[in-house]
Amino acid sequence: MSEVFSSPVLRVEQPRRGPLAKSRYKVLDDGGTVLAIAAPTDDKGNAAVMRGLFPGKSNLDARAVLLTTPDGDPLYVVDKPSGREYTEILRPDGERVGSFVTERVGRRYVIYDDDGTLIGTVEVDVPRNNFEVKDADGGKVAHVRKKWAGLATHLLTTADRYTVEISDPVREPLRTMAVMTAIVMDMNLHEAKEIT
């Protein structure tokens, strides 16, 4: 695990920006100290602007974000190919930490380590605001909660806020994957800003 994310309670926030803004995240500790910043790894050009104008299903598009320390040192890449089936967490050198694979869209995801061994699951509630991360034996590892900010904020900005509570001790790489759950679920389920 990166020492940057050693706190048992973390917050993952998207800055309040207009609907055309690209995905950006801040990871903070419980005291509000910024631990990491995530930004898109490349510019998709005019097609991305058009998808911003007509959101709907933009969460099906391929995209990746690079997490860095506030000083710019790379930590992880969250890489989501097109669709919602698969998302990888990579180290800056390209080595895979693990992956999230969709078992039931919007309801259940399985977590694998770099060798493809099942290490956990993510159970999602119906409103897609609570995410229970469990180990391979079904024991609770973390709870990720999305805060509802109101309809106007939901529809007109990129602002989403998540709290990640880790039930330490959690072995690696599952702990890192639990921390990444907020960003992965946001990219897979909430970036399109649908009312559902």
UniProtKB/TrEMBL annotation:
Pfam families: Scramblase. GO terms for molecular function: phospholipid scramblase activity. InterPro entries: Scramblase, Tubby-like_C. This is Scramblase. The lineage of its organism: Bacteria, Bacillati, Actinomycetota, Actinomycetes, Streptosporangiales.
